[in-house]
Amino acid sequence: MGSGWNKAHRERDREQRVQDQEGGGGRPRPLTYLFSKLELTRLPFFLTLPPPPFAELFFCNVLKEVEGFEISLTRDSGASRVLEQFLRVGPAACIEALLGPLCRAPPTVLCHCCVARVLETGLQQLPRLLRSETDLHQNLVELVVDLVNNVTPVLSEFACDIYGSFVLRTLLQLLSRFCVRTAVVGGIGICDGVPSTSLIFLSSFFHLHSFFFIHSVFVEEEAASHVLQTALLVLHARNASLSKFDLHAVPLTFAINCCFDSALLERFKDRTSSHVIEHLIEVADDEQLKILYKHHMRGNVPALALHPTANYTVQRFIGKCSERQLFKELVPWLEAVLAQGHMGIVTSLAEAVVRLQKRQDQLLETLLKVCFPYGTYHDVTYHGSVLVQNLLRFQDPALIVNGLLSLKPSLLLSLSCSQFGSRVVDVFFRSPTVSSQFHEEFLTILKVLFSMACTKHGSRVIDGIWTSVSLPQKQAMAQELALKHSELRQNQFGKHVERNCGLGHFLRRRGEWQEVQAQHSRKRRMLADILD
């Protein structure tokens, strides 16, 4: 009798849910039910991976109650967050049940902000599920293939939508087994969860990738351009050669049929297109860069360097290219570039000549002519700091070294204690082309180590100097700092200098201190290649 009542009760509840969903007053019952379980999902045992057995049973029961309403629930901002939590820790069966309707839904539905976020979260869980042995492995792979086939007919429109763009980027990373990290310093890491033998995923990835080279919206529209940038990064990470794509056939040249060289130059000046070209330059090889320079950029580099948008693409190109003609073409225009405030071009040139070990004297001579009228002292800037750091790495940095050593002690102290100037002093002591004789002269001129040690950036400079100088120079530094030993220990920055230099040990047992420092110096010389 009890089982019959329970069955009738479940049927009555299901009918009520249908009535509520079809237009009954108030919030739909599945939505109310889902919110009633929200607090439970925040308990600690629901946040562990893998979840305990009773948690898996809970997830399955909840999803069974809302079966048939997956799309409508994901459209709700509150319910979508609950479903995201379910996807992060739920078992494979629950994730398959929730992702199935989403992967087969019309692309217009997937462009909803909440639906797209739930779908993204589900796709991000697939590597974890595919790594584990599960009977649903094939079903999960088929869901991804269904999603690819679902969005392919309207790929360009789907990519132009901001939320559809996010879904595509997540899908590309899943199919290619590579994850593009969105940190300040970008990088690419492998997703170990997806089996490398999954030829279905690889074929789906290249199937999607082929469409990027026939639709110009992937370069012209901002949202779609991010999809193409992700595709270029993961394609490069898979060591797939771009040489099979003729540079003129890629939509980066916008189907100009190798005839209208000026068309690509206009794209350098467009904010959206220039980002895509930067990524293409980043993943292109030397031969492709030579083709790009020879057919499109030669003779136009100065104009691009002076443009407020195109100059960033030129900086990326300088950092990758080894064309001598490029430097010969750009160096005479440095004064005009500086007048426009495009210091990134100058620092990129300096980094390039250090990397290539060529044209260093020519660049230095030009910079001296250009910068001489602006020789008055100003605050240390980021680009100025980067430029001097690269000049100190030149094969013959004597001119820059003598310029630094000619500064007054007060200016050297100000330089060492500033955010950007401290980096210059670091490179001064670490550069292999600056001899220890200049290091000793620098310390002799400064003679204000205590004032440096009591500042944020100055204390870090002293730590860097300490690891670079010889033992006699360390003794001289320790002798000077030991005079203010108690004051250093009481300062928030100085106490770290006191500890790293071992000043207490230096005052009590100087012989042992010398042995310890000598051992540290030998170890650093042995591991110099690794540490640098």
Automatic annotation (TrEMBL):
Region (Disordered): 1-29
Protein's UniProt keywords contain Amino-acid biosynthesis: no
Keywords: Repeat
MF (Gene Ontology): RNA binding
Residue ranges that the Swiss-Prot or TrEMBL entry lists as coiled coil: none
Keyword Lyase carried by entry: no
Compositional bias annotation for Basic and acidic residues: 8-20
Domain of life where this protein originates: Eukaryota
GO cellular component: 90S preribosome; nucleolus; preribosome, small subunit precursor
GO BP: endonucleolytic cleavage in 5'-ETS of tricistronic rRNA transcript (SSU-rRNA, 5.8S rRNA, LSU-rRNA); endonucleolytic cleavage in ITS1 to separate SSU-rRNA from 5.8S rRNA and LSU-rRNA from tricistronic rRNA transcript (SSU-rRNA, 5.8S rRNA, LSU-rRNA); endonucleolytic cleavage to generate mature 5'-end of SSU-rRNA from (SSU-rRNA, 5.8S rRNA, LSU-rRNA); ribosomal small subunit export from nucleus
PANTHER family cross-referenced by the UniProt entry: NUCLEOLAR PROTEIN 9
Protein name as catalogued: NOP9 nucleolar protein
